[in-house]
Amino acid sequence: MTPRRCADPLHRGCQTLLSRFNPDDACSACQAAEAAIPPPPPEPYVPPPPYWTPERIVTALQTWAGEFGHTPSRREWIASRRSPHHSTITKRMGSWTQALVDAGMEPRPPHRPKVLPRPGQTEAIMRLLAEGPSTVGDAMRAIGCRRDVAKMILERLEAQGVVRPYFDGVMADGRRRNVRWFLVEREAA
Ligand SMILES: [Zn+2]
Q1: Average pLDDT over all residues of the chain
Q2: Domain coordinates in residue numbering, the chain
Q3: Ligand 1 center–CA 42 separation, angstroms
């Protein structure tokens, strides 16, 4: 029977003969030396790169807009349960509005509940106009309503042909400058 030699696990040239009754394949000295080697230091933890890169976020927003046909508000994004979480979007992009801008979308104006004229307000504006031409601001102060309500009433009256606007000119964005409305003279029936 050929004598067994130490398997020399540390490659130190160990030639130690092993007893045939020894179940191990390395000598006790090599085993002890092997056990004494400190384990390698753990790899420093490197967090994985974030999955939701700005590019992926932009794509997600554009996909949403393509499906729903308009720019998503944060509320709508949350309601649609899409990924990433809205807080991830604002954290990575700076703000919700900035995310939309980066996605090439027009941020939507803040939601303002629509208010309809109350009974009597149209008549109050008619009485005001009977005294002379009025601006939206005049009408707003006269009946104590929101500016958009006064404007709505005046534009309805304009559409009905009851009042006519005159204005100083039209601005680049199409809005009329210094609009005043006056009552259209009615011929006696
Ligand atoms: Zn050995």
Answers
A1: 89
A2: 4-36, 54-102, 121-183
A3: 28
